[in-house]
Design brief:
This protein has about 300 residues and is an all-alpha fold. The protein folds into 2 domains: about 220 residues, Rhopdopsin 7-helix transmembrane proteins (Up-down Bundle), CATH 1.20.1070.10; about 70 residues, Winged helix-like DNA-binding domain superfamily/Winged helix DNA-binding domain (Arc Repressor Mutant, subunit A, Orthogonal Bundle). About 80% of the residues lie in helices and about 0% in strands. The protein starts with a helix and ends with a helix.
Length: about 300
């Protein structure tokens, strides 16, 4: 069983590094700090996973890494808890497009600091209860982030981000009860050793989330290149003062793409696409796509 768990940990680390890279890559490509903050959030989860992997190995093989492991685990757990406590709500609010007041952020910082203290103490102190408290607090922080996403779901501008968040919320709704079940079972003496020795629910949650992110990253970050706006007649562009973004949208409109598909290709919402099309019609004086195509092909 130990070899299987260690193999899962290795998969988690590889997947986590990939997701972190995607986050920073997307931040550079789209100029959005939200992706960078998400990458930092995932770094905190990976740090916590490193601690659990070392502790799992120590327990399973019956060795004692000594005080060094406890100090290392305490520092990593404290840092991971602080980062999670701060970046989970921050990323959630950024996704739904809400700006928080300074007083609320001060509360988030205070909560993050408290989580850091608990995370550090649970590794240095012996009481098992403290570990359960830390675990429940982190679950509560995830639930808080999910609540923000649910309440602000309609405010998410990117169609692909909406799809990702919807999948994540369903995944979290399945995981949270399972995590609570294992938390209860591991305190029961008669429970099988695999429940006591291995944090399987954490590993499965991490793997599931990694797979979810990679699937969406592969689908949208490396989507086919946008259609070239330069394909439009220059005379038409200059005559109606068509902007670069309008040129991109027109290129797709005349080829029959739906507003939703255009939004996914340009990483904007379907409503934004609709507004752009409305302004294009206003500029050119046409009423539909056919008239727009005819106007583009006309000599004057």
């Amino acid at each position: 069983m130990l070899h299987i768990v260690l193999a899962l940990y290795i998969f988690c680390f590889a997947g986590g590094i990939t997701v972190i890279f995607f986050g920073f890559f997307a931040s550079t490509r789209f100029g959005s700090s939200s992706f960078r903050h998400f990458a930092v959030l995932f770094i905190s989860a990976t740090m916590m996973l490193v601690v659990e992997a070392l502790k799992t190995y120590e327990k399973a093989v019956g060795v004692d890494f000594g005080l060094g492991l406890h100090v290392f685990a305490s520092v990593f757990s404290a840092c991971a808890n602080v980062m999670m406590g701060y970046f989970i709500p921050r990323v959630a609010f950024e996704i739904v497009g809400r700006v928080q007041s300074p007083p609320r952020w001060r509360v988030h910082i205070a909560v993050a600091a408290f989580l850091g203290v608990v995370g550090g103490l649970k590794e240095l102190a012996a009481p098992f209860i403290l570990w359960n408290v830390n675990y429940l607090l982190l679950l509560g922080m995830h639930a808080y982030g999910a609540t923000i996403l649910v309440k602000g779901y309609r405010g998410i501008g990117h169609p692909w981000m909406k799809s990702l968040i919807r999948s994540f919320l369903v995944f979290l709704a399945v995981f949270a009860p399972l995590a609570i079940v294992q938390l209860v079972l591991q305190d029961i003496p008669s429970s099988p050793p695999v429940v006591h020795d291995y944090p399987l629910e954490q590993i499965l949650y991490y793997i599931g989330f990694v797979v979810l992110i990679i699937v969406y990253a592969a689908r949208y970050l490396f989507a086919p290149p946008r259609l070239q706006a330069s394909e439009l007649p220059e005379e038409f562009v200059n005559r109606f003062s068509i902007s670069h973004r309008e040129r991109e949208i027109i290129s797709m409109v005349v080829q029959g793409y739906s507003n939703r598909t255009i939004g996914e290709r340009l990483f904007i919402s379907a409503v934004t696409v609709k507004n752009h099309i409305y302004h294009i019609y206003q500029k050119t004086g046409v009423a539909n796509k056919i008239q727009l195509l005819n106007l583009m092909n006309s000599p004057k």
